[in-house]
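We were asked to recover a plausible sequence for a given structure. The inputs and outputs are reproduced exactly as logged, with field labels preserved.

PROBLEM: sequence recovery
POSITIONS: 337
GIVEN STRUCTURE:
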């Protein structure tokens, strides 16, 4: 892959590209709507991907830290760490006026946006860029969409996987050559709008199952009966009917069309309700089951023996994973075309 060198970058750089980026990674207590950030890191980059500075903080989630075996942050380590409200201003300063860059960016953005909504603030960032999407735009020969694969492709050495600061560093180092490759080829960057989340409900959520037990409760952390659990994100609501007719099944290498019936099966890294919201905003119909009329099944585990995956195989329903679906959502064709 040929990269732009420093002598030609200024002259050849696309004028439409953003003026700066904030490469972000957050570690969290889990993936659901009521999960919290336990650490965050930001690498600020200039217009051509050069590192300007970096920042890292632990965050007291006011609850059980979740998968300690992944992020390594125990209740003892987080006891005494600042609350999100304490770091919100500095975090916002790091993001202000820049494009948020992350690996599977909608997840990081969703977690950040929910934290700011809880703090009754709006994040000062308007666009995000997912490095998974960018690697697809560049047709990088990656075996999968993991950060470690992107890093290996560009010769970036990861030292502490699932540590927010090191993950952000690795992504920043892999993003710069990706950005330069895109500039050299005149590739349009896959920028998406960052829509602030503002809905908040005081209704108590359903009990969580399978939470990690730490064996002790450190001072400064809320228990399941504390005020934290009196707040849940976004109440259940009736979804509007899709106004478009079903155009039929999704065809590989073609865009989605408004009116297509999309079903989901299994776990998703993005909160399911948010993923469904984005699909509805794009003009798709959310199906609660799979039938012969289903246009597409979205699942990260197509070999699972769920009723939806079994029916999809029986009916020949097209199947894509979550990463592919989020990219398809970028360009949904209008109904009737």
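RECOVERED SEQUENCE:
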């Amino acid at each position: 892959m040929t990269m732009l060198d420093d002598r030609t970058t200024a002259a050849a750089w696309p004028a439409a590209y953003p003026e700066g980026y904030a490469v972000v990674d957050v570690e969290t207590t889990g993936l659901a709507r009521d999960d919290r950030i336990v650490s965050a890191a930001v690498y600020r980059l200039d217009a051509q991907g050069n590192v300007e500075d970096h920042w890292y903080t632990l965050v007291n989630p006011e609850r059980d830290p979740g998968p300690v075996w992944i992020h390594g942050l125990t209740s003892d380590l987080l006891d005494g760490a600042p609350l999100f409200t304490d770091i919100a201003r500095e975090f916002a300063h790091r993001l202000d006026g820049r494009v948020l860059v992350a690996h599977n960016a909608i997840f990081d953005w969703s977690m950040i946006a929910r934290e700011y909504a809880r703090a009754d603030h709006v994040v000062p960032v308007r666009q995000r860029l997912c490095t998974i999407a960018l690697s697809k735009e560049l047709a990088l020969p990656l075996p999968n969409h993991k950060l470690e694969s992107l890093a290996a492709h560009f010769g970036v050495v990861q030292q502490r996987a699932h540590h927010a600061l090191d993950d952000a560093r690795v992504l920043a180092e892999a993003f710069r050559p990706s950005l330069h490759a895109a500039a050299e080829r005149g590739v349009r960057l896959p920028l998406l709008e960052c829509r602030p989340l503002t809905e908040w409900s005081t209704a108590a959520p359903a009990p969580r199952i399978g939470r990690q037990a730490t064996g002790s409760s450190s001072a400064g952390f809320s228990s399941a009966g504390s005020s934290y659990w009196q707040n849940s994100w976004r109440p259940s609501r009736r979804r509007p009917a899709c106004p478009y007719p079903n155009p039929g099944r999704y065809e590989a290498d073609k865009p989605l069309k408004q009116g297509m019936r999309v079903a989901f099966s299994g776990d998703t890294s993005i909160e399911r309700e948010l993923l469904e919201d984005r699909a509805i905003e794009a003009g798709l119909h959310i199906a609660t089951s799979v039938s012969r009329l289903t246009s597409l099944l979205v699942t990260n585990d197509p070999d699972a023996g769920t009723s939806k995956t079994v029916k999809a195989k029986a009916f020949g329903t097209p199947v894509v994973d979550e990463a592919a679906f989020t990219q398809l959502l970028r360009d949904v064709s209008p109904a009737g075309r």
